[in-house]
């Protein structure tokens, strides 16, 4: 089933290949859950729905979707949000899978906007909602263990241990704040610090509590929205990383612009100017120590623009892809 933003609702009749597709406006996305339920039936043991966010990854997104659908504890409903990729990949995926819905957006709304659109389409049909990015491959028992961990700990949010797909090396068991107001991943379970945020690659949330905090904050667009939603869900209950739940994802550093902008924005939204100021000072120090001696003009622009936009809340995507070297 395919949902296409701002197009008139229509349903193709079953063709010889028995491939069906529905298209409706993005504003009527709340109608999707009842249609899914009617087609799939209900199963009380499947207590979560899933939102998968896609953007120009290519055909390997099928690995993510297959791993999700083949869970020992599979989802009740699945929405795959296409963040205006316009590459036709999800149409191919949907043509061979009738057990998912594709929501095509007219513009790239970033992580927060795309996930919120998927959550709106799913509604409150299940007590739990899974948010998954397009390159994450879940181990077969991941959701069985996540849902058990959610119930046992009475959490508002849980996530799996994240490992690299190529090496199997763990790169995140949740995360904590640094003394300077930054963030870092927990790499091992020996010290067992309190988890303060969960990486947005894979999040399982209490649907009602997620609604109560009004979902992801779209001011971030990309990066730090997982830190923000974790902080807000911690006001609704505990959060945690479930050690028996595993998922694979390759990882990279946060783009310079978003790292600076969204760190400052996060603390500014909370009225905490000391960590916001420390983030700004760190950006300026890198400009004078790292960038100016090597005349990295574009990097300097990204840092300065990120610093300014973190203070003002403006969003500029022209320099958003530059990363530290």
TrEMBL record:
Q: Which GO terms describe its molecular function?
A: glycosyltransferase activity
Q: In which pathway does it act?
A: Cell wall biogenesis; cell wall polysaccharide biosynthesis
Domain spans labelled Glycosyltransferase 2-like: 49-197
Any Pfam family from its record, for instance, is: Glycos_transf_2
Write out the entry's keywords from A to Z: Glycosyltransferase, Transferase
InterPro entries cross-referenced by the UniProt entry: Glyco_trans_2-like, Nucleotide-diphossugar_trans
Work out whether the entry's keyword set contains Transferase: yes
Q: Which family does the record claim for this protein?
A: Belongs to the glycosyltransferase 2 family.
**Name of the protein in its database record:** Glycosyltransferase 2-like domain-containing protein
Q: What's the source species for this entry? A: Rhodococcus oxybenzonivorans
- Read off the lineage from the record: Bacteria, Bacillati, Actinomycetota, Actinomycetes, Mycobacteriales
């Amino acid at each position: 089933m395919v949902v296409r933003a701002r197009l008139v609702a229509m349903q193709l009749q079953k063709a010889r290949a028995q491939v069906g597709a529905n298209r409706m406006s993005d504003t009527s996305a709340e109608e999707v859950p009842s249609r899914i339920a009617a087609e799939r039936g209900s199963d009380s043991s499947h207590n979560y729905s899933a939102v998968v966010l896609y953007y120009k990854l290519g055909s390997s997104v099928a690995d993510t979707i297959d791993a999700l659908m083949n869970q020992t504890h599979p989802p009740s409903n699945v929405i795959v949000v296409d963040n205006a990729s316009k590459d036709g990949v999800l149409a191919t995926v949907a043509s061979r899978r009738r057990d998912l819905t594709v929501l095509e957006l007219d513009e790239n709304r970033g992580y927060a906007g795309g996930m919120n659109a998927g959550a709106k389409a799913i509604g409150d049909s299940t007590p739990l909602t899974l948010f998954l990015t397009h390159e994450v491959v879940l181990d077969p028992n991941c959701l069985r263990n996540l849902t058990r961990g959610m119930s046992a700990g009475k959490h508002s949010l849980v996530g799996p241990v994240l490992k690299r797909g190529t090496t199997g090396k763990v790169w995140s068991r949740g995360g904590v704040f640094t003394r300077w107001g930054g963030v870092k991943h927990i790499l091992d379970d020996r010290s067992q610090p309190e988890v303060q945020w969960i990486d947005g690659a894979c999040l399982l949330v209490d649907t009602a509590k997620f609604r109560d905090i009004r979902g992801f904050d779209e001011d971030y667009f990309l990066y730090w929205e997982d830190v923000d939603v974790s902080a807000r869900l911690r006001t609704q209950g505990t959060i945690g990383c479930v050690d028996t739940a595993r998922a694979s994802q390759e990882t990279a550093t946060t783009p310079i612009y978003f790292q600076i902008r969204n760190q400052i924005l996060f603390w500014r939204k909370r009225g905490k100017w000391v960590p916001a100021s420390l983030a700004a000072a760190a950006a300026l120090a890198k400009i004078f120590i790292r960038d100016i001696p090597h005349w990295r003009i574009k990097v300097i622009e990204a840092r300065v623009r990120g610093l300014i936009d973190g203070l003002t809340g403006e969003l500029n995507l022209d320099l958003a892809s530059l990363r530290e070297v």
